[in-house]
Amino acid sequence: MSVGKLSNADLNHFIIDEIKPQRSDILIRPGVGEDCAAIKFGEYACVVTTDPITGATEELGKLAVHVSVNDIASSGAEPVALLMTLLCPEDTALESIQQIVVDANKAANAMNIEIIGGHTEMTNAVNRIVVSVTAFGSTRAEDIIMTGGAKSGDYLYMTKYAGLEGTAIIAKEKEEILKDYLTKNEIQDAQSFIEQISVLREGEIGKHLKVSAMHDVTEGGVLGAIYEMCEASKVGCKVYNNKFAIHELTQKICEHFNINPLKLISSGSMLMSVDKDVAPAYEQAMIEAEIPYSKIGVLTEEMDRILIFGEEADEEIFDVIEPPVEDELYTVV
């Protein structure tokens, strides 16, 4: 099997199809592309998500916190608390574990989030530290935004740049290799993309404007996220290759390793489905918040999901957007 998440087909067949609904107070259940689960408590809901960090060895605590909090943000909820599990090889220094916790706590506290527990153990089941975070958020039940809420006719937006997280990880993990290709300043700038991986502000804007759907871009990159949003929402799309914002350093690194930046893990970028009537207010809000954004396409009633090359008027050259497979990151690190 490939490294990384299960394919959507395997996820459905071997996992999701085996989980049977039992309770009426579950608002969001497992589904391809859904970032969170949600449980109703009166007029409010507890939104929950969990994620491990397996593709990086640097800044694990910070990265683990932001990846999970991003899922909560994509639901329109306020992140409140975290549980953190650390599985460590037997020879791990206690100081290394402590540093992960220090970094995680600093990142969480900066967002007014508290680490409330977890689990730490040394084990021969892993060959490097694995950090898994479960995050909890709170919102009014009626205000939840689901990945599956996108509608045909909506504009599709992507915030910041494609491949942000993957660029930062590769620049850190493969620094010695990149020294022969990039300048010292370029490598440092690429590594600094890790500072942009939060989508909390995007989530707040989306909640305020009641956008149709949000989905943070993780494994499988922005094309994977587009497929997952369309699949969850039962819609198709037309997106344009020349509309995606890709940072110059991401482009250079991807060209060097012969990988596709649109299929590279990209925490820090949020995919947002926005009603055409809401789009002007959305764009103004993003400008005022100084968050870069790209209008990359439109959702369609027809179920075809296509990536068009060239201008909007020329739709003859295109690729079909397939379900995400192994992330490009795993071919490099």
UniProtKB/TrEMBL annotation:
CDD domains the UniProt entry points to: PurM-like1
**Signal peptide span:** none
Q: Which SUPFAM superfamilies match?
A: PurM C-terminal domain-like, PurM N-terminal domain-like
Classification via InterPro entries: HypE (IPR011854), PurM-like_C_dom (IPR010918), PurM-like_C_sf (IPR036676), PurM-like_N (IPR016188), PurM-like_N_sf (IPR036921)
Residue intervals of the PurM-like N-terminal domain: 33-138
Q: Name one Pfam family in it.
A: AIRS
| Domain spans labelled PurM-like C-terminal | 151-302
Q: Which domain of life is it from?
A: Bacteria
* PANTHER family documented for this protein: HYDROGENASE EXPRESSION_FORMATION PROTEIN HYPE, HYDROGENASE ISOENZYMES FORMATION PROTEIN HYPE
Entry's family note = Belongs to the HypE family.
Q: What is this protein called?
A: AIR synthase family protein
**UniProt organism field:** Fusibacter ferrireducens
